[in-house]
Amino acid sequence: MSEHEIKFQKKIDAEVKIEPKDWMPEAYRKTLIRQMSQHAHSEIVGMLPEGNWVTRAPTLRRKLILLAKIQDEAGHGLYLYSATETLGISRDEMTNQLLTGKAKYSSIFNYPSLSWADMGTIGWLVDGAAIMNQVALQRTSFGPYARAMVRICKEESFHQRQGYELLIKMCQGAPIQKQMAQDSINRWWWPSLMMFGPHDADSPHTGDSVKWKIKRKTNDELRQAFIDATVPQAEYLGLTIPDPDLKWNKERGHYDFGPIDWDEFWSVVKGNGVCNKQRIKDRTKAYEDGAWVREAASAYAKKKKKTAVAN
Ligand SMILES: [Fe+2]
Ligand SMILES: [Fe+2]
């Protein structure tokens, strides 16, 4: 280990945050760029399945809530892109990686949102799973990432609650509404568990990420915490979790659960999910449609700089 590396690790061990201008190992920088940009992409691609339902929200109140949530996700994308830029990669480069398939985003957003109940389930399970991950990331070792997470977490807990409240209403409604809610959990439960990523034993990045305190908890720890927190919430709704092996394990003090279909996970990650192509098509269109805004903004910045120099 070089002197730089020893100093770096000492800082991490002492819980001192690493800031953009500090020395850092190249692998630390690369891991963060990969993880943070993937996180940013997930925020903005995650707007698409919900955007699908804005014009079909059943009431004005629901529409306002959904719009506000989707707007929050755009904001999360922006904080995260900005935080990632401090590591020496440009926003354009990151966007290019997303649109060309070089960078990934959470595979859950490649599933379609088929009914209004999905707006509840996405908030409850998908944002719920994201929160588990993000609460731990508030203490991640890279300063800009940790600070972005503090603000994001506050908004995420609102997202989860609005989703759960939507489902409570549906479960108290007509039998067909409750059935819609059940069908929605049946479709989203397993993909939500996959959001935590492969089992620790199969996760190539876990070792270094834990040593560098980028990851404060492993994929399996977070997944278990999510299941333990979520099962009682499903019981309260009167809905069944689609896992016949799910049961409380007294000795472990945790729920046991059935095997996850990793073939499905990898197939979706590799581009074979129902919506992969549509999502990238929509993001590409959004990027192209926004070209005039970027041009206008940089022309304005140039003009301002000129006036500043002249004065
Ligand atoms: Fe978010
Ligand atoms: Fe969210």
What this model shows, in words?
- This protein is mainly alpha-helical.
- It has helices at residues 3-13, 26-45, 47-51, 60-85, 91-99, 117-137, 143-171, 175-194, 206-211, 219-237, 262-272, 276-289, 291-310; strands at residues 247-249, 254-256.
- The chain has 13 helices and two strands; from the N terminus they run ααααααααααββααα.
- Strands 1-2 form a two-stranded antiparallel sheet.
- A hairpin with a 4-residue loop joins β1 and β2 (254-256).
- α2 (26-45) packs antiparallel against α4 (60-85).
- The model has no long low-confidence stretch (mean pLDDT 95).
- Bound molecules: fe (ii) ion (FE2) (2 copies).
- The site of one fe (ii) ion has 5 residues, from α4 and α7.
Secondary-structure blueprint:
Blueprint: H1 3-13, H2 26-45, H3 47-51, H4 60-85, H5 91-99, H6 117-137, H7 143-171, H8 175-194, H9 206-211, H10 219-237, E1 247-249, E2 254-256, H11 262-272, H12 276-289, H13 291-310
Antiparallel strand pairs: 1-2
Helix pairs in contact: 2-4, 4-7, 6-7, 6-8, 6-10
Largest sheet report: 2 strands, antiparallel
Average of per-residue pLDDT values:
95
Rg from alpha-carbon coordinates: 21 Å
Low-confidence stretches: none
Report the order of strands and helices.
HHHHHHHHHHEEHHH
Q: What is the beta-strand fraction?
A: under 5%
Q: What is the percent of helical residues?
A: 55-70%
Q: So what's the overall shape?
A: globular
Which structural class fits the helix and strand makeup?
A: mainly alpha
Bound small molecules, deduplicated: fe (ii) ion
Q: How many beta-strand runs?
A: 2
What order do the strands of the largest sheet run in, or round the barrel if closed?
1-2
Number of helices: 13
Report the oligomer. Answer: single chain
